[in-house]
Amino acid sequence: MFGMYMSKKAGKDQKKERRSPGADKHVNEQMKDYEHQPVVPVLTELLDKIKKEMGESSDLIIRGLDLTDRQGKDGDKDIALVYIQGLIEDERLDKFVIQTIQQDPELPSQLKQLKEQVRQTNADSPEEPVLSRIKSHLIAIGLICEIKTFKDLFEKLFLGYALVFIEGSPSGIGCNVYGGPKRSVEEPKTEMMIRGPREGFTESLRVNTILLRRKIRSPKLWMEQMKVGEITQTPVAIMYIKGLADESVIEDLKRRIKDIKNDGILESSYIEEMITDQKWTPFPTIISHERPDVIASNLLDGRVAIIVDGTPFVLVVPSTLNMFFQAAEDYYQNYQMATFLRMLRFSSFFIALLMPSIYVAIIGYHQEMIPTQLLLKLAAQREGVPFPAYLEAFIMELVFEILREAVLRMPSTAGSAISIVGGLVIGQSIVEAGIVSSAVVIVVAFTAISSFVAPIYSLGIAARLLRFLLLIAASTLGFYGIALVMLLILLHMSNLTSFGIPYLKPFAPFNWKDFKDTLLRVPLWMMKERPQQIGDRDQVRDNSAAEPRREPSQ
Amino acid sequence: MSMRSGYVNNEITSRQVSKLLYLFSVGSAALIVPTATVTIAKQDGWISMLLIVPVQYAIVLVYLALMRRFPRMTIAQYAEFIAGRWIGKSIALTFVFFFFILSTLVLRNMVDFMSKTVLPQTPTWFISGTFMIVILYGVFLGIETIARTGEILYIWSLFVLVIITLSLMNQVHLEFFEPVLANGLITPLKGMYPVLGFPLTECVFLTAILPMVKESEREKLNRGIFGAVAVTGAITTLIVFLLIAVMGSGETTRSPFAVYEMAKLINIEEILVRVEILFAVVWIGTVFVKLSLSVYVLSVLLGQVLGLRAYRPLVFPLCMLIAPLSLIIYRNGVHSTNFAMNVWTVYSVMQGLLVPLLLLLAALLMRKRSRKDGRFPSKEPNA
C-alpha cells in the first residue's frame, strides 16, 4: 500500500484507456469504415451498394430519372434521387428538386455530352458541367452539400437529406428537405408556471437551438455541434456566449463528450451520466431544463448548455445545488414573494429529507421533546399499535413509494382507481385496523407533499433515497445517528464539484456576492454581478443606475 | 475551472481557516471547559473568558510568524529544516504524539457525553466506532472538504446559539453575578488556567493548516484570524455569561456538561421544551471539525516524518488505533477531570506554545526561512 504512494509512477498515469476489444470492432463496423470509400461514378453500381449496405430496407427510396430517353434496360438511368421515406418533406422534394431537374431544357444534351466524354476518356472528369448546373441553377433549396464518400452519404441520408447522383459524376449533391412528423412547441410539462413564456423545448435539436437564438439575439451566442453514439449518431450541440463562458469549461466539456464511446444516446441523461465529475453520488451535478428562458438566463450567467437531439431536456454545466432550488418564476414576480418561496423550498427539501427520521428519533429516543399534551395524545394513538415506531415509518414510506411509482407508470384512465385504493383503502383502513398510528400517516403524507415542492425533479430523487438511510440511522441511534448521517451527507456534498465549481457554492465556500440569489432573491437592480468563478470574464451584469423615486414633497 | 481543479484538494481560503479556528476552539471545549473555569473563578468566570482573548491572539501570532517564515511548510518540515534531520524528526514526533493523544481525548469526551446523557444504553464502542467512520470519511476526502463542511457547520452553530440565547432570556438572573470581582482580578485570572491548555494551545494545529492557504488569500489571513479569535472570545464569554446568569455558579460547578444542562431549562409556553438535543447536534458538529482536523494534522505530520508522498494511507490505521484507545484512556469521569485540570494544561502549553516558540526563536537567530513547497501530494519523495 505504501509502495504505491512512494513509487515514482503516479497511480493516475498507470490507468491506460481501458476498452474491450469488442468496442474497437464495434467502431469499425460503424461510420469510420465508410470514410475511405468514395462514391463510385457508375450509377447502377452505386445504387446496388447503397441497397446492399442497408439490407434493402423498404423505406429507402431510389427514384431514377431517364432524361436522355434511352429507354434501355431498367436501372439504366441518368440521375438518381435517394432518400428515406418519411424523413423528408415530399412536397419540397417534388417542387424544388425533381420538377426543376425534369423541366430543364438544357440538361438532356449536357448529360449526353458527359456520357460521350466518359466513354471516350474512360476516366472521371474532374470538372463537369452537369453537377454544377444542377447545383447552381436547378436545385431551389437553401442548404445543400456535396457527397464524396459513403460516410457523407449515410450521414446526410439519415439527417433528412435527399441525395442526387448523376451517372458519370464522382460526387453527388445532398439537399436538405428535412421533414416528417415532429412535435410542435408546447408548454413544458415538468416546469409549470403562472407567469412567463409558455414555450418549451421539443425533441428536435434545430427547433431547440432556434428557441434559444430567439431569446439571445447576439452574434456572440456560439454553437458547436458534434455526433455522439456510435450507432445512433445523435447530434449534440453545445451553446454558450463567447466571452462569458469559461474557455476551460468548454474545452473540458468537449473533451468529455468526445470521450463518450457509447453505441446509443437516447436521452440527455446518457450524456449527463457520462460527463459528471463524480460518478458515485445520489445528487444530480448537472441540471436539466425544459424551458428556453431558463437556459437563456443560464447562458447569460456564463454557463454552457448541452442540447441533445431527441429530447426536450437541455443540460447546463456547471451547476450547483443552489440552482435546483431556483424556479424561473422567481424572477418574474416580485422579489419579496420570490425570497419567501425560496426559503419555503429549502425548508421543504429538509422536511422531505428529515421528517420521518426526526419523528422516529423523537418517539424512540427523545420523548421529552414533545409537549406533555401532545405526548399523551400520541401515546393514546400508539396504544394498540403492535409495531415500534421505526417499523411503522418504514412500512408507510414503502407503501407511499410503491403508490407513487404505480401512479406514474400506469395508464391515466386507471388513475382514479389507484387514488381510491391507495388513499382511502390503505390510508384510512390501515389506521382504523390499528396497524400503524395516524401520526405516522400524517408524517409520511406531509413528507410526500414536501418532496413535490422542489422545482427540479432530479433533486427530489436524492432526498427520496437518503430518507431511508436517515430512517435506519434514526432508528438505531436517534438524533445522534441523524447527526452522523447528515455529517456524512454534508461531507459528501462538500466534496462534489460540477466542472470544477464546488457543488455547495455559494454556501461553502461562502460568497456574499453570490448569496444574493440563493435563500434570498434580491431585486434585479441589486444583482449587479454575474456568479463568481463562472461569469468571471465579464463581471458586470447590470449597469443601470436606479433613479431614486422621490417622495412627494409638500 | 478545468477537470483537474479540486483533484489535489489542498487549497483553502483565509475565511475558511478562520472558521475552522473558531470551530476548533469552540469544538469540544464549549461543553466541558465552562465547568472548570466556573469552578475556579465562580461568578467571575465570564471575565476570565474575556481576559483570555488577547492571550489566544498572542499564541496565534506565534503560529502566524512561523507561517511567514515558512509559508508552504508544516511544523514537521521546518522543525527538520531548523534543527537538522534527526532532532527535527524527534520534535515532529512529539507533535505526532500530541495530536494522537488529543484525538483520543476528544473522541473520549464525545463518547462520554453521549453515553452519559443521550444514549445511556448504547455500548460505548458503538458510539466511538460510528463517529470514527464519519471522521475517517472526512479526513480521507481532504482539507478542502473539511473546510467547506466547516463553513456550513459554522452558520448552523451560530444559528442554534442565537436561538438558545434568545429562548433563555426569560430566565436570566443578573443577581447571580454579584458580587462582581469580590477578590479582585485574581480569581478570573486563575480561571484562565484550564482554558490555556484546552483549547488555546491546541490551536497549534494551525501550523499544519496554514500552509494550505491560497497564495492570493495570504494578505487577508491576519485579519481573518483576528476575527476568528474575537468571535470565539465573544461566543465563549456569552456561553459562560448565560451559564452563570441562568444556573448560577454553584449549579454550573456541579454539572459536568453544564451547557447541556442549561439547554434543558429552555421552556417557552410549554411548547418549546427540552431542545437540548439541538445543542447536542451542534456540539457533534463542532467536535467533528475538531477531531477531523486533529486526525488530519496527525496523519499529515506522521506522513511527513516518515517521508511518504501522501497522508491518506495513514488515515485508516490511525483511526483504528484512536477508536479503541479512547475507550481505555480514562478509567472514569473523575480521572478525566483530574487529568484535564492537572496534567493536560501543562503538557498542552509545553507542546503547543513552548516548542513552536523555541523553533521560532531558533529560526530568527539562525536567520532561516524557506519558500519550499512541502504540501501533499509532494513532487519529491522527501521535502
Structural commentary:
The complex is a heterodimer of chains A (554) and B (383). Chain A has 554 residues and is α+β, with helices and mostly antiparallel strands. Chain A folds into 3 domains: 24-176, no CATH class; 205-319, no CATH class; 335-502, no CATH class. Chain A has helices at residues 2-6, 11-14, 21-29, 43-53, 90-103, 107-121, 129-138, 150-158, 205-215, 247-258, 268-275, 292-300, 335-364, 372-381, 389-409, 415-432, 438-451, 457-495; strands spanning 60-65, 79-84, 144-147, 161-166, 172-176, 221-228, 234-241, 287-289, 304-308, 314-317, 497-498, 501-502. Chain A has a 5-stranded antiparallel sheet, with helices on both faces. In chain A, strands 6-7-9-10-8 form a 5-stranded antiparallel sheet, with helices on both faces. In chain A, a hairpin with a 5-residue loop joins strand 6 and strand 7. In chain A, helix 13 packs antiparallel against helix 17 (438-451). In chain B, strands 1-2 form a two-stranded antiparallel ribbon. Chain B has a single domain (14-358), classed as Amino acid/polyamine transporter I. With 383 residues, chain B is mainly α. In chain B, helix 7 packs antiparallel against helix 12 (276-306) and helix 12 (276-306) crosses helix 13 (312-328). The model of chain B is unreliable at 1-7 and 379-383 (pLDDT under 50). The two termini of chain B are 29 Å apart. The chains are: A alpha+beta (554), B mainly alpha (383).
Report a brief summary of the structure.
Chain B: One of its GO terms (cellular component) is membrane. The complex is a heterodimer of chains A (554) and B (383). With 554 residues, chain A is of the alpha+beta class.
